């Protein structure tokens, strides 16, 4: 298969039924905390039990619900604590050396042999969800989505469990998830399980996309089991039993466009609303977390000096707060932020020599001593203002969100351009006898039915510009504008030709969320009223529209043209 040309050299198949046999030997060494070392049998077992280095920043920074796995609407929370559901006799099918090394987990354990059988078996227990590493905090992420152009309300991680965020020796942060580890509050009527067919497809394609140079989530391991689940493979009412399988996957974050839709009010067409409807504070909190963690450059795009945040620590100390200034007092966790800046000198620093104030009678500690302020002034000007206030910009949160939005738009436009250049469709499956296939594709796939069908909706789009949620995807083997790879897409909304416009449409939905978080009128983004062109909310919506109009298509065209020129060796050719 053409796909395997793009798979990493160290991608190892373990299960005897998988027909993937690389010739490379498995390394007997691993870089751990930057030092080459060999593991003995006992140290391997200890390394497995110790697990990766978890630092779960998202759970400290964002609101978390603690009420467990039962299916329900989850208000006022970005995550909910859950427990994986165990499987019987888990065994490793496939593993990626590269992905495991990002987590600094021992790759020696990929292969089971007599010398490390106990450590291998323990390793698989953790990667199936049967055991939980110390430092892991299993949770499910709450998000919403527009599907086929209509808002459907709460969706969330119905078959995925966040284990935590692994920080490796290079200070890279990787969110680690188990997909297929059992039901969560977002599973609705499904069982929270995935089968081997769909799990194998996601594993292979996510690693292939990485080696094609396209931003994507990664797959580390694939575990199958003797736990059986029911599936109607061809949607004919014929139920068969298939093995429950669990994929461990990783990305800097799995936050997506739909994560910002949880505070969306009731939709006038579908009647659905987000679980945290009309609560803009939660989206503000989420936006600030994403910007400070994944888009630190957004602050600098404002062109103003700003302090920075390094860490955020929360606690079990509770404080009273009137969140909406309505007299309704609630308890919130006391939290501590470490911050940094070139200097924290402030206006008040210059007031230390102020003489007695005629109204308050107060004075500075160095009253009537101008020399100390002259010294301070000379230091500040020479060190921090060599151009002497040549550029001053007001502290504008609207501009902050606009810069964040512009970068997300650029990343999304770049991503879809890279998709188009390799003929990738995110989300037709047609019947052909006893199997189904993607027309005009070099892949032959078996049915994907896991009880849910994902496509290119806001809930499937990464806020970091990554390819994620591999459902009914496909690659074109020959070019067709109207190529579709989702059987439920009868109108061709998510065809190859439509992918750029759909991604731009999804960006518009994200803009509405950010406008609302800023206290603006999101309705003016799509249907601006010229009579309100001079009011503040109208201007805010116009600024977001301008960012989308000026950023998405130019970025898409630039990246797509560059990629296509490379295909025909015209990389340096200049044309319109």
What does this molecule look like?
The chain is an alpha+beta fold and 576 residues long. It folds into 3 domains: 260 residues, no CATH class; 38 residues, no CATH class; 171 residues, no CATH class. It contains 12 helices and 20 strands. Strands 1, 6, 10, 11, 12, 13 and 14 form a 7-stranded antiparallel β-sheet that branches. A hairpin with a 2-residue loop joins β18 and β19. It is globular and about 85 Å long. It starts with 10 loop residues before the first strand and ends in a 9-residue tail after the last helix. The N terminus and C terminus are likely disordered.
For the terminal residues, how far apart are their CA atoms? 37 Å
Portion in strands: 15-25%
Shape: globular
Unreliable stretches (pLDDT < 50, length at least 5) are 1-7, 15-39, 299-307, 376-382, 385-394, 428-454, 572-576
The DSSP helix count reads 12
Percent helix among the residues?
A: 25-40%
What would you report as the Rg, rounded to the nearest angstrom? 27 Å
The largest sheet, given as strand count, sense and whether it forms a barrel, is:
7 strands, antiparallel
Secondary structural class:
alpha+beta
- The tally of strands reads 20
Report mean pLDDT, rounded to a whole number. Answer: 77
List the domain count as a whole number. Answer: 3
Keywords: ATP-binding, Magnesium, Metal-binding, Nucleotide-binding, Nucleotidyltransferase, Transferase
InterPro entries: SelO
Family: Belongs to the SELO family.
GO molecular function: ATP binding; metal ion binding; nucleotidyltransferase activity
């Amino acid at each position: 298969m053409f796909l395997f040309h793009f798979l990493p050299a160290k991608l190892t198949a373990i299960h005897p039924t998988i027909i993937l046999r690389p010739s490379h030997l498995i390394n007997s060494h691993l870089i751990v905390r930057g030092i080459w070392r060999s593991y003995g049998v006992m140290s391997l077992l200890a390394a497995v039990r110790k697990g990766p280095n978890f630092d779960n920043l998202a759970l400290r920074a964002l609101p978390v619900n603690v009420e467990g796995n039962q299916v329900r609407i989850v208000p006022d929370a970005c995550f909910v604590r859950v427990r994986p559901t165990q499987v019987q006799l888990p065994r490793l099918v496939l593993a990626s050396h590269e992905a495991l090394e990002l987590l600094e987990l021992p790759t020696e354990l990929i292969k089971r042999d007599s010398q490390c059988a106990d450590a291998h078996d323990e390793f698989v227990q953790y990667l199936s969800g049967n055991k939980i590493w110390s430092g892991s905090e299993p949770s499910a992420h709450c998000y919403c989505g527009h599907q086929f152009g209509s808002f459907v309300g709460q969706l969330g991680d119905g078959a995925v469990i966040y284990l935590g965020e692994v920080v490796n020796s290079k200070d890279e942060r990787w969110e680690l998830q188990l997909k297929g580890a059992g039901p969560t509050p977002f599973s609705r009527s499904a069982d929270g399980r995935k089968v081997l067919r769909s799990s194998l497809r996601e594993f292979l394609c996510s690693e292939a996309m990485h080696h094609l140079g396209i931003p994507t989530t990664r797959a580390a391991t694939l575990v199958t089991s003797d736990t059986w689940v029911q599936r109607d493979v061809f949607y004919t009412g014929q139920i068969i039993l298939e093995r429950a399988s669990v994929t461990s996957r990783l990305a800097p974050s799995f936050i997506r466009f739909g994560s910002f839709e949880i505070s969306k009010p009731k939709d006038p067409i579908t009647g659905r609303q987000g679980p945290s409807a009309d609560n803009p504070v939660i989206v503000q909190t989420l936006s600030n977390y994403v910007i400070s963690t994944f888009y630190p450059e957004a602050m600098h795009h404002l062109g103003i000096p700003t302090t920075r945040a390094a860490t955020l620590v929360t606690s079990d100390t509770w404080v009273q707060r009137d969140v909406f200034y309505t007299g309704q007092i609630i308890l919130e966790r006391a939290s501590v932020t470490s911050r940094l800046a070139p200097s924290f000198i402030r206006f008040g620093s210059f007031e230390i020599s102020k003489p007695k104030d005629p109204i308050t009678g107060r004075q500075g500690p160095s009253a009537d001593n101008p020399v100390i302020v002259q010294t301070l002034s000379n230091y500040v000007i020479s060190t921090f203002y060599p151009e002497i206030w040549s550029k001053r910009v007001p502290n504008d949160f609207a501009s902050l969100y606009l810069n964040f939005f512009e970068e997300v738009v650029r990343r999304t436009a770049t991503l879809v351009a890279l998709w188009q250049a390799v003929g990738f469709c995110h989300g037709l499956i047609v019947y052909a006898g006893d199997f189904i296939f993607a027309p005009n594709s070099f892949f032959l796939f078996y049915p994907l039915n896991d009880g849910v069908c994902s496509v290119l909706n806001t809930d499937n789009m990464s806020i970091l510009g990554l390819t994620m949620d591999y459902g009914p995807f496909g690659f074109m083997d020959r070019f067709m504008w109207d190529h579709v790879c989702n059987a439920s897409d009868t109108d061709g909304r998510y065809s190859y030709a439509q992918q750029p416009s759909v991604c731009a449409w999804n960006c518009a939905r994200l803009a509405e969320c950010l406008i609302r978080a800023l206290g603006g009128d999101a309705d003016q983004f799509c249907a601006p009223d010229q009579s309100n062109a001079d009011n503040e909310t109208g201007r805010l919506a116009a600024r977001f529209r301008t960012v989308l109009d000026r950023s998405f298509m130019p970025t898409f065209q630039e990246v797509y043209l560059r990629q296509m020129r490379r295909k025909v060796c015209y990389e340096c050719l200049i044309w319109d």
